[in-house]
TrEMBL record:
It holds the Pfam family FAD_binding_4. InterPro entries: ALO_C, FAD-bd_PCMH, FAD-bd_PCMH-like_sf, FAD-bd_PCMH_sub1, FAD-bd_PCMH_sub2, FAD_lactone_oxidase-like, Oxid_FAD_bind_N, Vanillyl_alc_oxidase_C-sub2. Residues 12-176 form the FAD-binding PCMH-type domain. SUPFAM superfamilies: FAD-binding/transporter-associated domain-like. This is Xylitol oxidase. Keywords: Oxidoreductase.
Length: 413
């Protein structure tokens, strides 16, 4: 490549020698046959070297778009290059929906699934939990098709790109639905302490935003079907549209004020037609058991001055438990603490390390695609099925074509 390729945030310069954009699965197979090392790029929204390689990067954006509704309108089969925004638009036109979406509709479906990216809601699993089938082109060009009936399926869904190239996924879908989005401001600290579980369960999807400059919550974003009036545990309704990051234009955000609208225009925080931001940020996130939610908030509060000095905003969400081997929500309902930092790696990393130390006693698991410093041994110990996952990787990719330095370190010997 004449120009070095970076991730979305610009904090990672990929070491790849070539970038490929195959237009078909056959072209993909030809590409894999001509390389000894390869990684799939996705939408480039990882903030660490998960997608890096010294070999060949592969973008699936050029694959033909596929949106095939399954029998009984219960599933959709889609290609490995599609983004959630496009999939949502196509599903909505059919009167269907996925169960949840992340804050950004701009991310790729396959990449979000591979890293267990999530939305919010005490009853909703992360985005990977909607997957009922995977089609994986392996290093030798053969196609592996896995469904929930396969014993290794739960290990293959959140796969970190280690098994091969996901060329198609089958997702569970539901009938389309409407939601209203409300923003409340200045939730008192005592309300957060006394009613945390009630607040987090007060909508289909609930996000709490704070800059950790005070003791309360700056904004509560609540998405639900039913209308709301009055205050929310002492928080007051915003008097107009809001953006979660102070100073950013609310025009970029999905409609608020309790106006009912289709699911794909309410579940994400940001509109599909706007670039979410300039990428001038870093991101970290840790998942703790939801039963440890108050203790986790107290641990962050103990580092308030350190955190707020390099923070743009922190988002607090919930995710339901699942059985996926490498999901941060494996076998436990979770509270996720997401930090959007300033774009200064040198200033942010020491704070990240301090947060990890404070949250470690609570069993914190980092989001696979974010900035963290947890050592590989600690990561392996956090997942009861990690040994099984390593064996699965060895069977799918014995020559290590899809490995990189990041994965080698994680998988160990």
């Amino acid at each position: 490549m004449r120009e070095r390729l970076t991730n979305w945030a610009g904090n990672i310069v990929f070491g790849a020698q070539r970038l490929h954009r195959p237009g078909s699965v056959d072209e993909l197979r030809e590409t894999l046959a001509g390389t000894t090392r390869a990684r799939v790029l996705g939408s480039g929204h990882s903030f660490n070297r998960l997608a890096d390689t010294d070999g060949d990067l592969i973008s699936l954006a050029g694959l033909p778009r596929t949106v095939e509704i399954g029998p009984g309108r219960a599933t959709v089969r889609t290609d490995g290059g599609i983004r959630y925004g496009e999939l949502a638009t196509r599903l909505a036109a059919e009167g269907l929906a996925v169960h949840n979406m992340a804050s950004l509709p701009h991310i790729s479906v396959a990449g979000a699934v591979a890293t267990a990216t999530h939305g919010s809601g005490v009853r909703h699993g992360n985005l990977a939990t909607a997957v009922s089938g995977l089609e994986i082109v392996r290093a030798d060009g053969t196609l592996a098709v896995l469904t929930r009936a396969d014993p290794e399926f739960a290990g293959a869904v959140v796969h970190l790109g280690a098994l091969g190239v996901i060329t198609a996924l089958t997702l569970d879908v539901v009938e389309a639905f409407e939601l209203r989005q409300y923003v409340y401001e200045n939730l008192p600290a005592e309300a957060l302490d006394e009613h945390l579980d009630e607040i987090l369960a007060s909508g289909y999807s609930v996000s709490l935003f704070t800059r950790w400059t005070g003791t309360g919550i700056d904004q509560v974003w609540l998405k639900r079907a039913e209308p709301l009036t009055g205050d929310l545990f002492g928080a007051t309704p915003a008097d107009g549209p809001r953006h979660p990051v102070p100073g950013m234009p609310a025009l970029n955000c999905t409609e608020q004020g309790g106006v009912p609208g289709p699911w794909q225009e309410r579940l994400p925080h940001f509109r599909m037609e706007f670039t979410p931001s300039s990428g001038e940020e870093l991101q970290s996130e840790w998942h703790v058991p939801r039963t440890a939610g108050r203790a986790a908030l107290a641990a962050v509060a103990g580092l308030r001055e350190r955190v707020s000095a390099v923070l743009q905003v922190c988002e607090i969400r919930t995710i339901a438990a699942d059985d996926l081997w490498l999901s941060p929500n494996h076998e436990r309902d979770s509270l996720a603490l997401h930090f959007t930092w300033i774009a200064d790696t040198g200033a942010v990393l020491p704070v990240v390390a301090e947060l990890e130390a404070a949250l470690a006693p609570l069993g914190a698991r980092p989001h696979w695609g974010k900035v963290f410093t947890t050592d590989p041994a600690g990561l392996r110990a956090a997942y009861p099925r990690f040994g099984d996952f390593a064996e699965l990787v060895a069977r799918f990719d014995p020559a290590g074509k899809f490995r990189n330095a990041w994965l080698e370190s994680l998988l160990g010997a």
